Amino acid sequence: MPDTTLTTTPAPQPDLAALKGRQQVAWSSGNYAVVGTTLQIVGEQLCEAMDLSAGARVLDVAAGNGMMSLAAARRWCEVVSTDYVPALLAAGRARAHAEGHAIEFQEADAEALPFADSSFDAVVSTFGVMFTPNQDKAAAELLRVCKPGGTIGLANWTPDGFIGQVFKTLGKYLPPPAGARSPALWGTRARLDEMFGNSATVTAEPRHFNFRYRSPGHFMEIFQTFYGPVLKAFAALDGEKQRALHADLMALMARLNRASDGTLVVPSEYLEVVITKAEASGGA
Length: 284
Fold this sequence. Notes:
With 284 residues, the chain is α/β, with parallel strands linked by helices. Helix content is 42%, strand content 21%. Helix 7 (162-173) runs antiparallel to helix 11.
């Protein structure tokens, strides 16, 4: 009899190293600090959700220009702020100096953190580690450097929130590599449980950050000029597709804008996540 066994073609595996290189170029373009500074309230609220104590040793991963690092330092924590974009670390260092905080800044890859196991009481990342190409490796690194009984605090955009929809819109014009995981999966409880649930207790609460700009056009101007992923997307498209992408993003804002005075006020959902690493098990 003929062999009727069904065969399946393996799913394509993305080139994660190449993807990371492209992402680093994107985040190094523009000036993310212009956008990152507006998100400060998220870091302040996450510090409170984590109940950070003065003197706690805190690692900020993919810290951008130090929004969460500053929030922790204002609570007298001992903070190490890391990112793989040197210009963002320089911006964070300037902010810390202006406020008189002794934060340590270090260039580091979130998928290969240059710290020993169990080095920190708390590990944090706000809208940062969620963009790593190798999600499982990044999650494992957060757990590795966190002390048993310590906490990991995250703020991650959700798939259906405003920024999640912005990235879906960009994906219509520049599809991600086949097999690559969406960063917005970090904004889902199911994915968080997959990555952390066997080694920690996960709590996640939906929150909203309000993007407030002078107008929808002002938002587009800022994001096209300073926000690397949007800047690079427009740069990669021809004129006709640029206009179509611009129209799609403006339509998205028109649907979600709750301001009635010509300005922009768009709530963007994110997950505020607090993960408690399991205590070390006993034994010889």
